[in-house]
Amino acid sequence: MLGFVIRRFIVSIIVLFVASVLIYFTVTSFGDPLAELRSRNPPVPEAVIEQRRQEIGLDKPPVERYLAWAGDVVTLDFGDDLQGNPVNEVLWRRLGRTLRMVVASVVLSLVLAVGVGVLSATRQYSKTDYFFTFSGFLFLSMPVFWLAALLKEFAAIRFNELVGRTVIYTTGSESPRLDADFWGRMANYAGHLILPTIALALISYAAWSRYQRNSMLDVMESDYVKLARAKGAGRPRVVFRHGLRNALIPLTTIVAIDFGAVFGGAIITEQVFGWSAMGNLLIEGLRDYDVNVVLAWMMVTGVIVIIFNLIADLLYGVLDPRIRQ
User: Fold this and answer.
1) Domain map (residue ranges) of the chain
2) Cα angle: 34, vertex 37, 42; to 5 degrees
3) pLDDT tens digits along 170-218
4) Distance between CA 222 and CA 229 in Å, rounded?
5) Are the beta carbons of 208 and 257 closer than 8 angstroms?
6) What are phi and psi of 86, to 5 degrees?
7) How far apart are alpha carbons 171 and 59 in whole angstroms?
8) Predicted model pTM
9) Main-chain phi, psi angles of 136, to 5 degrees
10) What CATH homologous superfamily does 2-30+76-324 map to?
11) N or C: which end of the chain has fewer CB within 10 A?
């Protein structure tokens, strides 16, 4: 198992290096960081533009700039934005907000997907199976902004009216100027987290539950499951010990691949629910052509995707010992 982990880790490092090269040269080639200075009226003196060009390193060869940037990134230093402020200060704060939402939604959607997938597979073509199939396709086809509007109206506004106070918030990641103790802050964060988490989770759950159902159906028709039944194993043992463990392998692949998509999809969700998080950071960086901000977003997102693919590889080894060979 140790050799398997080492091999996967080395592959992940190589992939991260290649990704960093592609990200850097792609982002640094699609615009001019000095465009705002050049377009000012009255015109900015060329000496000022040249000084700014040297400050942000545009006078150096591309490869040298990449090596300097990569060396800083290794130490988790993403440089300064166009205003001269450290990117790290805003990056980690906003990353924490987005991860709070994404991790909560992935956990919720996984629990729902596995539970519903197993239930649908073990009750194939029943009313329960048809209900979950219909609801899955419904959520899968529903635009996130429309789902958000429904959640705000029926899961937040009406619920708050019912209980007589604001429990579920419809916008923002936390209340402004929040002055509360630890548990008060946690309750406030949770109240803001409910709606975007549900919105992201329902869309992911809809797809993942179908994968889990189909995988479970395939496994339940396999020879080793039939043999377990023939030996007199009880239904719960057959379903959970022999069936579910092997049926989770394809879903593990899908979740690892989709985590990056969920992270990227959170951009729309953050806009709908007014979260100042990683989505807004990317939009601001693209709007201002702030290279270091966009690079920071791309690298952090790439690292997260690679980490979750590495986790998936390790889970393969746990779920199926044959993969470790």
Assistant:
1) 2-30+76-324
2) 155
3) 888 888 877 778 888 888 889 999 999 998 888 888 889 988 999 888 8
4) 11
5) no
6) -60, 130
7) 44
8) 0.79
9) -65, -50
10) MetI-like (1.10.3720.10)
11) C
